[in-house]
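Issue: copy button drops trailing tokens. Both records pasted manually instead:
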Amino acid sequence: MIDILQELDHRASAMTITECADLLGIEHNTLYRHARSGKFPTFQVAGLIRVNPAALASHIRASSKAQPIDCRSRPAA
């Protein structure tokens, strides 16, 4: 994740959803769905969806502060 954040911190121009999907290693349709629901920071330029790299880095940093779930501590089903 540190590599992703470093790349975003050094990026000066807005990114497309496809560029973000490639960087994050997820499907671009997933990002479009999250963008429409407001779960992913985007903006529009002439009707095209773009991502501010600084906003995405901030979003990732805020999301990574959530406590991870330790699946080993769950009782067996």
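Record 2 (pasted manually too):
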Amino acid sequence: MNFFRLFTAFVSLTTTVLVVSEDTSTKHRFLKWIDQFKIRIHNNQHFYNVFEKWVENDIFIDSVNSLGKSYKLAHNQFSGMNSTEYSEMLSNKFIYRAPINIIQDNLRKSSPPSEVDWVSAGAVTPVKDQGQCGSCWSFSTTGALEGAYFVKYGTLVSFSEEQLVDCDNWKHGGHDHGCNGGLMDNAFAWINDNGGLCSEFDYPYISQNGATGQSCQTECSLVKGSQIMDYVDVPPSSDNDMMSAIALNPVSVAIQADQREFQLYSSGVFTGSCGTNLDHGVLTVGYGTENGEDYYLVKNSWSSSWGENGYIKLGRGSQYNHGQGQCGILLQASYPVL
């Protein structure tokens, strides 16, 4: 995977950068970016390569922001990647499957409320970071379980993504693939078969470097009441059904996240070009309206340095992808039932 490793070591590049550009302001901002995101530079050639891509993204950010759109872009940990590298980082990390377990009776038949915010309600744990591991599916799964657990028991528990990465595979009765991708419905089924899930505290995440960190551990204690008894696949291509589901609890969703503007998203309601080729699992934790733009509030797993402190507001309405939702958010949504 072409992904720049975020190590704590910072390489001094003062001598090299003097000959890169005559724009001292650009050089200074680039060096600050390296320092802020702890980007590891291997040699001069690597430095020039990263700098060139960063400058291209810098120009792109200014260009998009000058158009007065409903959202803004900014530098983040992905600014040293071109679009191809960013897309490759996401490729083959999510398994698409058409919904097969729709339970429509669990959804509210009346009109959903005008806005929902599970973050403010206390049902959402702090933003996490999957690192270089293609484990977005596990973070989406635990987020939905955390929300459902809070709604049922009134307690917010951070559940273990690492247990899913290590244990939810064919060797242990599952169908997912650790750092090589997975599907939230598969993980919901595995948690049911496993009798529940351990907490993040008892089974911490250590797969940030892109490889499953360890064999499946069985010593941790399953959180009481965390067994998933069933899961609901939200009927696709319906904002009303999606909003009704979110009104009940946070909802796992799949989206297309490989677009350049998504890569560099910073704030506002994202209404930019975004298709429906699902490649990333995230968590929808609310919806509302900002400056006249309706949106879904989505929690990502790329740390709080990406987006709006780790979140993105995706445009909401039938105008997106012929009713399939912005970035395909309406195509594959589900949540667990405890």
